[in-house]
From TrEMBL, chain A:
This is Metal ABC transporter permease. Its main location: membrane. Belongs to the ABC-3 integral membrane protein family. The keyword Transmembrane helix applies. It comes from Diplocloster agilis. It is found in: Cell membrane; Membrane. It is a multi-pass membrane protein.
UniProtKB/TrEMBL annotation, chain B:
Belongs to the ABC transporter superfamily. This is Metal ABC transporter ATP-binding protein. SUPFAM superfamilies: P-loop containing nucleoside triphosphate hydrolases. PROSITE patterns: ABC_TRANSPORTER_1, ABC_TRANSPORTER_2. It comes from the Bacteria. It holds the Pfam family ABC_tran. It comes from Diplocloster agilis. The keyword Oxidoreductase does not apply.
Length: 277, 254
């Protein structure tokens, strides 16, 4: 039914292809998700963290292959959640600079992943993980995305105030009875789940760009939290939809096309804010 | 040890044998502080003396030994202690999209600030800000505030839930001389009009001499405590800060 609706509403020739309709719906779901999540990733200065998390997908798949788990999605998800919690734990110890800790863990986990997956020269089988393919999404997977979006929205309604407070000052947040560690861990798990469930379509190499760019662009022109979220979601949706359509007509890879558009928006808002204010 | 003053109000906060060990190193040892409401208590000491650690221990952010007890002397009951806290600095970059309303409502309201402005919350925050003469800044972006304005906003945030104890961690750093005098005056006035105790960490010894009721000289343990005159003229004070003299005559006036 939704497909028919799309066909009647959108005046484009590509709407007749089912894979394009599915990709279109997927983008309508994934991009707002990334737009919302990105706001607090940037506020918490976690860009590097989410990047490392994306890379850990490779290790998760490798671990799954190694232990003969039939569904590597599952091993990927479990590994990423554990990886995120472990990173948070070590970060909290303040033993060394956060970026160093993340880098060490990320490099190690990627290396392990590559060693396992590239055994016998078979890596090409997994290279689709690197770039992703939004056109391969199935209706059932779209349903998962709907649930994911709803879940994230509920999490945001309950926890975004606390998340923002923690990013402003941890001690201050703790003094107001906010359970800093719990909320930080929940957030890390939330990022891990969303990144893992969308990595197949977006790709390890560019997933972080989609998380960071819309929020970073929104920061250039927003003065309060409402504008910040509105513009982040708007830029994310806009880059996603326009990227998909352009990639169809110009015949380019969809993910990278979306990232290029998101980057252009970043530079445009950056120059606008420098000259407009 | 413990500070000895006449009881001034009905509440008191006792910190008994507070100790903190981190990474095998003793940072705080056997800290005993007795605080009455209506008093401005200032903790002084060199960098690395454990001042900020003590604050974090009080806030329950890091594990410590010993106990903090808040009692109502009227009925002798132990109550839970509400702490208001003004940090040294906050993590707001030049373009952080957070307004003063967002900052305060994020801490004090359940309505998600990313979704909408709650009218009720907005009025409440404006009223609170007006106590510190900054109500006109409510829609201003936090990153655009001056040092003095930010301090007043953070004070509004710390006191919005009427705490029993207000802790200020070097709140005047990054403020000019004129702003500093104004800031201490504000704290002093607030103390006189509200039922709470204040703990202030400070480097500004001349203001401490002028406004503090009690001074605690800290270096891993409490070296000396008491009224400013007593602490500032002590041997322990000289061993930490050298032989500096501060005008203490205002002390008698209060």
């Amino acid at each position: 039914m939704i497909y028919e609706l799309l066909e009647s509403v959108l005046p484009f020739s590509w709407v007749q292809y089912d894979f394009m309709k599915q990709a279109f719906l997927a983008i309508l779901l994934i991009t707002p998700l990334f737009g919302i999540l990105g706001t607090m990733i940037v506020n918490h200065k976690m860009a590097f963290f989410s990047d490392a998390l994306g890379h850990s997908a490779l290790t998760g798949v490798a671990v799954g292959v190694l232990f003969g788990i039939p569904d590597t999605n599952l091993s990927m998800l479990i590994f990423a959640v554990l990886f995120a919690l472990a990173l948070n734990q070590i970060k909290g110890r303040n033993l060394m600079a956060t970026d160093t800790v993340i880098s060490v863990f990320s490099s190690f986990s990627i290396a392990v992943g590559l060693v396992i997956l590239a055994q016998g020269g078979n890596f090409s089988k997994y290279s689709s993980l690197l770039v992703g393919d939004i056109l391969s999404i199935t209706p059932r997977e779209i349903l998962y995305l709907v649930l994911l979006l709803i879940g994230t929205f509920i999490f945001w309604i309950l926890c975004s105030n606390q998340l923002n407070s923690i990013s402003i000052n941890r001690s201050l947040a703790a003094s107001r009875g906010i359970r800093v560690k719990l909320i930080e861990n929940l957030f890390a798990v939330c990022i891990a789940v969303i990144v893992m469930l969308s990595i197949k379509w977006v790709g390890i190499l560019i997933i972080n760009a989609l998380l960071i760019l819309p929020a970073a662009s929104a920061r250039n022109i927003s003065e309060n939290m409402r504008e910040y979220h509105f513009f982040s979601i708007l830029f994310s949706l806009f880059s996603g939809i326009v990227g998909l359509i352009i990639s169809y007509y110009v015949n380019t890879a969809t993910g990278p096309t979306i990232v290029i558009i998101a980057s252009v928006i970043f530079f445009a808002t950056y120059f606008y804010s420098r000259h407009g204010k | 040890m413990g500070i000895h003053t006449e009881p001034c109000g009905l509440h008191c906060i006792k910190m008994n044998h507070i100790g903190v060990v981190r990474g095998g190193k003793v940072i705080l040892e056997d800290i005993n502080i007795h605080i009455h409401c209506g008093k401005l208590n200032v903790i002084i000491g060199k960098n690395g003396a454990g001042k900020s650690t003590l604050v974090k221990a009080m806030l329950g952010e890091i594990p410590h030994t010993g106990e903090i007890v808040f009692t109502n002397q009227e009925n002798g009951q132990v109550q839970s202690l509400h702490i208001g806290y003004v940090p040294q600095s906050i993590n707001i970059d030049k373009n952080t999209p957070t307004s003063v309303y967002d900052l305060i409502a994020g801490f004090s309201s359940r309505v998600p600030v990313f979704l909408k402005k709650s009218r009720r919350e907005y009025e409440k925050i404006r009223e609170q800000l007006s106590y510190f003469q900054v109500e006109h800044l409510i829609d201003e972006q936090v990153s655009n505030l001056s040092g003095g304005e930010l301090q007043r906003v953070l004070l509004s945030l710390a006191t919005i839930q009427e705490p029993d104890l207000l802790i200020l961690d070097e709140p005047a750093s990054g403020i000019d001389q004129n702003g500093m005098a104004k800031f201490y005056r504000t704290i002093y006035d607030y103390k006189n009009n509200h039922d709470l105790a204040i703990i202030l960490i400070s480097h500004d010894l001349e203001y401490v001499a002028e406004y503090a009721d009690e001074v605690i000289l800290l270096d891993t343990r409490i070296l000396k405590d008491g009224p400013p005159a007593k602490v500032f003229e002590s041997e322990e004070f000289r061993s930490v800060f050298g032989s500096v003299r501060y005008p203490l005559e205002q002390e008698g006036a209060k």
